[in-house]
Amino acid sequence: MAFDFLDVSSEEGRALLREVGADAGALPVVVVFDGRVLRDPSGVEIAGALGIRTRPDPRPYDVTVMGAGPAGPAAAVYGVSEGLRTAVLEAEAIGGQAGTSSLIRNYLGFPRGIAGADLAQRAYEQAWLLGAEFVYGPRAVGLRADGEMRVVSLSDGSASISRAVVLATGVTYRRIGVPSLDALIGAGVFYGAAAPEAQAMAGEEVYVVGGANSAGQAALHLARYARQVTLLVRGSSLAATMSDYLVREVDAAADIVVRHGTEAVGGGEGRLTHLVVRDRGRGHTETVPAAGLFVLIGAEPHTQWLPDGVERDDAGYVLTGADRRGGAASASGGAHLFETTLPGVFAVGDVRHGSVKRVASAVGEGAVALRMVHDHLGQA
Ligand SMILES: Cc1cc2nc3c(=O)[nH]c(=O)nc-3n(C[C@H](O)[C@H](O)[C@H](O)COP(=O)(O)OP(=O)(O)OC[C@H]3O[C@@H](n4cnc5c(N)ncnc54)[C@H](O)[C@@H]3O)c2cc1C
């Protein structure tokens, strides 16, 4: 959808406001191609004005896919390819986490990388052209079984009714809240797992932020390649936040330095080359060379809205297949790798316990899960 931004202080911007009879009091003003003028609209209002569906069809779908990060549209592409009537529900923005990445370099088929927003747009278009119905805006707030149907209730009071549900609601990583560092995400600053970038850190100075197990594991993994890994920990000890065996391994590693009471407060431009670290006690800052900053200060899976019948691990990630506490057998009889403890409900991508947290794996899981949905619907 072609669009343009006009600054309200520009001559063009002022002229447009005059033309449509809007004042600068309720910005932003959105002027739609058919002449409608929206003042400080919500995302849902804009989507509605552009003709995008903001409520699911009341008639049942075959499958409802929750979330339009990489996993959701992948599931939808395979859903519609299998002849299933497929809805994709997204509360915030198509693309999910991947959509916020400035350059994804490790997704197959894009030798020079692809901007996350670009990938998201292509995925959306592909699923839409094949026949998936996207519903933008309302957030899923509940899920229940009603006989053979699965009902996802939405924040606007509507519901998506379908014979199967694929949960692809992903996670949110806690950010460190330093704008100059968040501007370098993908360009030396990484959230989540460190493994895919580790080899690129060979011989470099690398920093890891966090004091929990994920940070300890990342530091140990990075130390296999980097010249030195420095773990920046806000607290005065790791003992309260990291498992004992990891604390011992970190302490024993010659290439890992732990700096307590220290935080990252700034970095380079364009690409991370140095880091500004601050001693929280004394308040003084220092600039150090750094090729990588790995931030592992926790992630929140989007699963709070799910019923108890969809079993989760202690951190809230959805248990599927053999990870379910009941053992390896599928709730619906077969060996359904991605099925949850609620039959007919599957989970893929980052929201799933044990997932790899990468675009390619989320896409792959979405594709595989749809095969299982198909089998489930054949049985139902
Ligand atoms: C900044 C950044 C850079 C990254 N770079 C790379 C990279 O270079 N290479 C790589 O392989 N991976 C990268 N990743 C990881 C990758 O983006 C994720 O693994 C991937 O996006 C997971 O896909 P997903 O579909 O499972 O979940 P998500 O991408 O998290 O998408 C989930 C979607 O569900 C929606 N949702 C959540 N709850 C609800 C609800 N209740 N109702 C409706 N909708 C809901 C969310 O709004 C979101 O759009 C990066 C991640 C980040 C944050």
In short:
The protein has helices at residues 11-20, 43-49, 71-81, 116-130, 179-182, 195-198, 213-222, 244-252, 359-379; strands spanning 29-31, 37-39, 61-66, 86-90, 133-136, 140-146, 149-154, 159-167, 171-173, 189-191, 205-209, 228-233, 256-260, 262-267, 274-279, 285-289, 292-295, 299-301, 345-347. It is α/β, with parallel strands linked by helices and 380 residues long.
Task: Write structural notes for this entry.
There is one protein chain. The chain is an alpha/beta fold and 380 residues long. It folds into three domains: 1-32, no CATH class; 61-172 and 299-379, FAD/NAD(P)-binding domain (3-Layer(bba) Sandwich), CATH 3.50.50; 179-295, FAD/NAD(P)-binding domain, CATH 3.50.50. The protein is built from nine helices and 19 strands. Strands 3, 4, 5, 6, 7, 8 and 19 form a seven-stranded mixed beta sheet that branches. It has a five-stranded parallel beta sheet with strand order 10-17-11-12-13, covered by helices on one side. It has a three-stranded antiparallel beta sheet with strand order 14-15-16. β15 (274-279) and β16 form a beta hairpin. The structure holds flavin-adenine dinucleotide. Residues 66-72, 89-93, 96-98, 100-101, 104-107, 139-140, 168-171, 173, 185-186, 191, 302, 305, 349-351, 357-360, 362 line the site of flavin-adenine dinucleotide (FAD). InterPro entries: FAD/NAD-bd_sf, FAD/NAD-binding_dom, Ferredoxin-NADP_redctase_2. This is Thioredoxin reductase.
